[in-house]
Every structure is written in structure tokens, then in C-alpha cells.
Amino acid sequence: MKRTWLVALPLVIFVAVIVFLYQGLSADPRARDSQILNQPLPEFSLPDLMHEERQYTPADLQGEVTILNVWGVWCVTCAVELPYLTYLADNERVKFVGLYFDQDIDPDFGGKTITAVRKEVQTMLSQYGNPYAFNIYDVYRDMSLDLGVTGAPEHFVIDQHGVIRMHHIGDINERVWTTKVGPMYHQLVKENTP
Amino acid sequence: MKLGLLIGLVLLAIVSKSSVGATGQDNYQFANAQQRETFQTLTSQLRCPMCQNQNIADSDAMIARDMRRKVYQLLQDGQSAEDVIAYMKARYGDFVYYEPPLTVATIWLWLLPVLFAGAGFWVLYRRRKPAPVEDMAQRLAQAEKLLKQDKP
């Protein structure tokens, strides 16, 4: 009896270690639990990227299921996903709102002017498509920090009550839309229409 | 002679460059040495969420710069180091701080090595148990008897 136990124990430990390590093979080291999931949008009051006199607050993102897209002209992947986002906006009536941030216009970090950035944004949107209802300009990137943004592109699916229901790090392409973001979006839209 | 000087200069350039590091670009002013030290400790203990295993002091990622500035701002506002860590954890999770919290899931990080060492010592102790002392004289007598029995 004791002998079988002695033989079985290393085997059990071995199998446990193998299972643990095997999971590590397919785990995404960049995947994190978002802290903002199922939380209402953090408080903010930020200007429109194109018209600084227009101010937005969380109330502007309520009433309709919205996908908040964190982006910037300096981000290559953002340019890559723009045509597909535009397709979704045009054909599936998906509401995209941009959360724009640019370290180069921050006086602490760079020397670009807002006029130059607006020009770049316009060029890029006319070149690749413009999916955005409007763009919120995250001047000091406080909102990005509050949302737990690590880079760009990132997407937040926000329900009609302004609660964040999904935080997707990375771009939206056809595969991501059909398997991950799209189902959540359609489910929320269904909830919204009684 | 000239070659030696050249090599020396190149080495000097490499050493001075590496010692400056990424934070060399930041130009933060501190009221006192203690504040500077808190800032440096915090930025070396907070992990960059974008990079794989780099603290925000060493990283030049955009997010790391933003986080360094936020740490600076919060400290300037009079917040404590614990407040800053709590602020970052609320946004980026436990991942952002190099010291894991003590939970049911993480307690094994401390317990397993102790248990493992304990098990090792236990096995060693069991093996060392001295063999029971036998009465050699009696055994010899028994053997003698068996030998005698074998003889016809």
C-alpha cells in the first residue's frame, strides 16, 4: 500500500506540473483582467478633437450602445483597422466614438501643435475612412489612465447606461468582430430595444 | 597610443549612456531628496502594463512616461507612496505592482518553498533512522545451530 503511494506521488506531481506548464504555452502574456469591466465610465470633461469649445462628459456616451476606440495618428495598427471600422459604421450602424491621444502635443513631452495634429487626423481619416461619430481629445491622457489603457488601439464596448461591458486590447478585424466584439455588441443592442 | 585613447572614449561613452537610462529625459523637480527617493523607489516598483517585465522607470513606452508623470503629480499633491500604488492598482490591477498581494491563490508562492524544504528534511530524517541494534551473539548462536543441523 505504502509503495504504490510512493510511486504514484511523483507521477501526480509530474502530471500537475505538465498541465500547469501546458496552459502557459497557449496563454497570452498580454492578457490582463480589466479593472474597469462592468463599471460606469469614469468622470471626465474633455474637449472635441476638432472643436475645443465643444465639451464631452460621460452623459454624452449614454443612451446608445457605443464602442469607444482609443487611437492616434501615430499608431500604425489604428490606421490598419480604420477601413473595417468604417465598414461596420456604414453597414451595421455601429456607433464608434474616438478617444484620441497624442503625447507629442503635450507640452511636457513634445512640440507639436493642435493645428498640426488636426491636419494629420483629417488626412488620415479621408485616406482610410472615418468611422467616428465624434472624437474626444484626451489632452493629458487622464481618461486613458482611468480606463486602464495600455496603448492603442483599444476598444471599450459601452452599454446604453454608460457601463463598460467589454475591454478589448488590440485592433478590431473581421475575426475579432465575429468571434468576440460583435456578439457582445449585438447582445447589448438587443437589450436596448424592448 | 591613439588607439587606446579611442577605445577609452568609446567605453566611457557606453558607460555614461547606460547609466543615464530612460528616465534621463524626464526633468522633474523635487522639493527635497526624500521626495526624489520616493519617486525613484515607486517608479522602480511599478510595472509597465504595456511591456513584458519592465518597470516604469526603465521603460520608454508612452504609457510608462504617462505613469511616471502621474506618480510625480500625485506625490506633488501630497499623496503617500501607498496612495500612489493604490491609484495604479485600481486602474491596472495587481499586475502593475511588483509585490504580489497575499491571497488564497498567491499564498503558495511563499508556502510551497517552505513545504518543499520541509518535505526534503522529513525524507532525510526518515532515511537516517539507525538500524535497530541486534543481538549479534544470539544470531551467531542461531547460525551455529543451523550449521550443526545440516551436518549429518
UniProtKB/TrEMBL annotation, chain B:
It holds the Pfam family CcmH. GO terms for molecular function: metal ion binding. Possible subunit of a heme lyase. It comes from Salinimonas sediminis. Belongs to the CcmH/CycL/Ccl2/NrfF family. InterPro entries: C-type_cytochrome_biogenesis, CcmH/CycL/Ccl2/NrfF_N, CcmH/CycL/NrfF/Ccl2_sf. GO terms for biological process: cytochrome complex assembly. This is Cytochrome c-type biogenesis protein.
